[in-house]
Design goal:
With 462 residues, the chain is an alpha/beta fold. Helix 1 packs across helix 12 and helix 13 runs antiparallel to helix 14. The longest helix has 22 residues. The protein is elongated, with a radius of gyration of 26 Å. It binds adenosine monophosphate and zinc ion.
């Protein structure tokens, strides 16, 4: 049984997808006017953990992540650089996919772009106009919040007491200050579409209603984002979608808390951000960054510091070294220890149960670390046999489908180094220690340190 905290009810609920065995999930993706920062990646890493864990639990996950390629900022960028909107956003879309790969974020099944879905948005807006949920004013079209009585159910704000929420000048003007733009009529902007509802461009919120329902249906299982998306973005998505279909839009809403810097949200506008590229340039490894962003529970704020990043890197190195070490036990013959199988089973169960409790990753990792300690003890005591090591490696590979930070030993080494290691093993067997040492030095010059243990040689990156 999987429990997820639903923002809609503010409670942990038993997760039950609409269609047995399949999860339909929508993630609000990047606005591609610049490189994403690691605050954004905290949200994407949390969503990746959720995606991976649901697959680990046996579900087929059909996921959609939108690309917002039209908004005030992408327009401003294209005008500044005197290029088309597509030319301007293309490089950031490419960069985003590269960053995703670097952090081992699973690909969604669909990455729809707003500019490719204007007809879908227009048809929703037309229905909203027909049904009286929307009205036109000076060429723009707004959603009439007073026509949708359950407005506010996600954010649980008391809207009677709030007259103006976030009020972007052209986003919220209208019959009532809180009505929001579905369609922005354009007069002299360079980027617009000529449509049945006039000349203009879509507001931000409508793209997510149109694209989620197109790919996932009118009602789907999970919608995610950062807490800053709850209001107004997700509240508005619910209003638009439910007003059109008359059906519940999403069953489970999950939101992650922010990545902070000195107690403040990391954001472009505050200038207190790092992109992934900034951190890689400083010499940090992607696995450490992924680990740091992943291992604080998603609903707890996470304060970023380079010190915590270094700690995360050490933890990952520790896990990787452990994994690596096991390969050198694979040549120790003997009967397997029944204790080891039990330890694996307990760790596996503990890991699953922790994540099934609203993705309690800290508890899940605690299970893994205590497992590592136990296995290391058996290893030191010379009790670990090839058969056990293989089972443990298989277990680690399995959980790595979820955490995705353990490199597989050997696979990551360049082929020439693997060949040198083998050559050195041979020299040692032949007791040609002089040759063995010179090969060791040659390998060290390539950044790999070898360590001979009673159970074989292991390697570690310098
Ligand atoms: P944006 O490109 O601003 O629409 O943001 C993309 C995603 O990143 C959204 O899900 C936001 O909620 C999320 N996000 C933005 N800043 C942060 C932050 N400091 N910490 C966590 N998530 C964030
Ligand atoms: Zn969205």
């Amino acid at each position: 049984m999987i429990m997820l905290f639903n923002t809609l009810s503010r409670k942990k609920e038993v997760f039950k997808p609409i269609e047995e065995g399949t999860v339909k999930m929508y993630t609000c993706g990047p606005t591609v006017y610049d490189f994403a920062h690691i605050g954004n990646f905290r949200a994407y890493v949390f969503e990746d953990l959720l995606h991976r864990f649901l697959e680990y639990a046996g579900y087929r996950v059909i996921r959609v992540m939108n690309i917002t390629d039209i908004d005030d900022k992408t327009i401003a960028g294209a005008i500044r650089e005197n290029v088309s909107l597509q030319q301007y956003t293309e490089k950031y879309i490419r960069a985003f996919f590269e960053d995703m790969e670097c952090l081992k974020l699973k690909k969604a099944a669909y990455f729809p772009r707003a500019t490719h879905h204007i007809p879908e948005m227009v048809s929703i807006i037309k229905i909203l106009l027909e049904k009286g949920y929307a009205y036109e004013k000076d060429g723009s079209i707004y959603f009439r919040i007073s026509s949708f009585p359950s407005y506010g159910k996600l954010s649980q704000y008391d809207f009677d007491r709030i007259t103006t929420a976030r009020t972007d000048s052209d986003e919220y003007e209208k019959e009532q200050a809180r009505d929001f733009a579905l369609w922005k009529g354009t007069k002299d902007e360079p980027f617009f579409w000529n449509t049945d509802i006039g000349k203009g461009r879509p507001g931000w919120h409508i793209e997510c209603s149109a694209m989620s329902m197109k790919y996932l249906g009118e009602t789907f299982d999970i919608h995610t984002g950062g807490v800053d998306n709850i209001f107004p973005h997700h509240e508005n998505e619910i209003a638009q979608s439910e007003a059109v279909t008359g059906k519940k839009f999403v069953n489970y809403w999950l939101h992650c808390a922010h990545l902070l810097v000195n107690g403040e949200k990391m954001s472009k506008s505050k200038g207190n951000f790092y992109t992934l590229r900034d951190l890689l340039k400083k010499g940090y490894a992607p696995d450490g960054i992924r680990y740091l962003l992943m291992t604080t529970h998603y609903r707890d704020p996470l304060n970023f510091s380079e010190q915590s990043l270094k700690q995360a890197e050490n933890t990952v190195k520790h896990l990787q070294a452990f994994h690596q070490r096991l390969f050198f036990a694979t040549n120790i013959n003997g009967e397997s220890e029944p204790e080891i199988a039990k330890t694996i089973e307990a760790a596996s169960e503990g890991f699953f149960n922790a994540l099934a409790d609203d993705l309690n990753i800290s508890a899940a990792m605690a299970e893994i670390f205590s497992f590592v300690r136990n296995v290391n003890e058996s290893f030191e005591a010379g009790k670990l046999k090839a058969k056990d090591a293989e089972k443990i490696i298989e277990f680690l590979n399995r959980i790595n489908e979820v955490i995705a930070v353990i490199e597989t030993a050997g696979e990551k080494l360049p082929g020439d180094i693997i060949c040198l290691i083998r050559k050195r093993e041979q020299a040692r067997k032949e007791k040609n220690y002089q040759l063995a040492d010179s090969i060791r030095n040659e390998i060290a010059d390539k950044g790999i340190l070898l360590e001979d243990t009673p159970y074989g040689t292991r390697w570690i990156k310098k």
